[in-house]
Specification:
Elements: E1 8-13, E2 16-21, H1 28-35, E3 54-57, E4 60-63, E5 76-78, H2 93-100, H3 110-123, H4 129-135, H5 147-162, H6 168-175
Parallel strand pairs: 1-5
Antiparallel strand pairs: 1-2, 3-4, 3-5
Length: 176
């Protein structure tokens, strides 16, 4: 006997297809944390104002506390656990920049900040100060005062641009 379609959820999460039998009105943040044990995505305000639960859904940053499971069936979802360096166990250049530039204190907002930075740098590899501020406007930090975060984003942009993370074609577009 097959399960009813109403309870079947599937998506590509951090590059792997995931299939779950869940209530489709479960929030995505709860799917990630409770069903997939991806606890890097944090829960804070639960109303989409702080960015602690930020993930990439089909390449776009979204607050996972505001997305229901049925809204992301078939989507490609990237969480903080899905970011990594070129080699196994290495930090992604954005994560490394946050470490080097002191872009965190307690660390609770950091996964959301890193995800938002990833989306920003994917769109604007060499962002202006205004683009950085707009790219992070959905993320709140109560500890750092933002100086280290802003430095981390600029450093990450420079690092990603000069590293092999960008393809030759992407670099050509930037050079235009």
């Amino acid at each position: 006997m097959t399960e009813p379609l109403g309870d079947f959820w599937t998506a590509v999460v951090n590059g792997e297809e995931k299939q779950l039998h869940i209530n489709l009105t479960t929030r995505l943040v709860d799917v990630l944390r409770s069903h997939l044990n991806l606890n890097g995505t944090k829960v804070s305000c639960e109303v989409g104002r702080c960015g602690a639960c930020m993930i990439l859904m089909d390449g776009e940053p979204v607050n996972s506390c505001l997305v229901m499971a049925y809204q992301c069936i078939g989507s490609e979802i990237t969480t903080i656990e899905g970011l990594h360096g070129e080699k196994e166990g290495e930090l992604h250049p954005i994560q490394q920049a946050f470490v080097e530039e002191g872009g965190f204190q307690c660390g609770y907002c950091t996964p959301g900040m890193v995800i938002s930075t990833k989306a920003l740098l994917d769109r604007y590899p060499q962002p202006s100060q205004e683009q950085i501020e707009m790219g992070l406007c959905g993320n709140l930090c109560r500890c750092t005062g933002y100086g280290g975060i802003l430095r981390a984003v600029r450093t990450a942009g420079e690092t990603c641009l000069s590293s092999s993370i960008l393809t030759t074609e992407e670099k050509k577009v930037i050079d235009l």
